[in-house]
């Protein structure tokens, strides 16, 4: 796979995002790379998917997109 870069991030690196909120930054980077296989986003509040969707309504749309991208 060809390396793609966005500012400080490279598609060749393994990337962990902590306290990602609605996971929109992970999705943005995954779209730029064409894959989310090297990205791990987590919400350290340990909220359930239902609780996350109350705090961050866009999460219900974002998570399936991330899953689709790997």
From TrEMBL:
- InterPro entries linked to this entry: BMT5-like
- 25S rRNA (uridine-N(3))-methyltransferase BMT5-like domain sequence ranges: 16-69
Which Gene Ontology BP terms does the record give? rRNA base methylation
Write one Gene Ontology MF term: rRNA (uridine-N3-)-methyltransferase activity
Could you name the domain of life of the organism this protein comes from? Eukaryota
Per the record, a Pfam family? BMT5-like
Report the protein name in the record: 25S rRNA (uridine-N(3))-methyltransferase BMT5-like domain-containing protein
- Which organism does this sequence originate in? Acacia crassicarpa (northern wattle)
């Amino acid at each position: 796979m060809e390396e793609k870069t966005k500012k400080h991030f490279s598609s060749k690196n393994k990337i962990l995002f902590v306290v990602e909120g609605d996971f929109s930054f992970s999705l943005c980077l995954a779209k730029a790379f064409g894959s989310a296989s090297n990205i791990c986003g987590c919400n350290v509040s340990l909220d359930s998917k239902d609780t996350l969707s109350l705090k961050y309504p866009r999460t219900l749309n974002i998570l399936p997109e991330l899953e689709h991208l790997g």
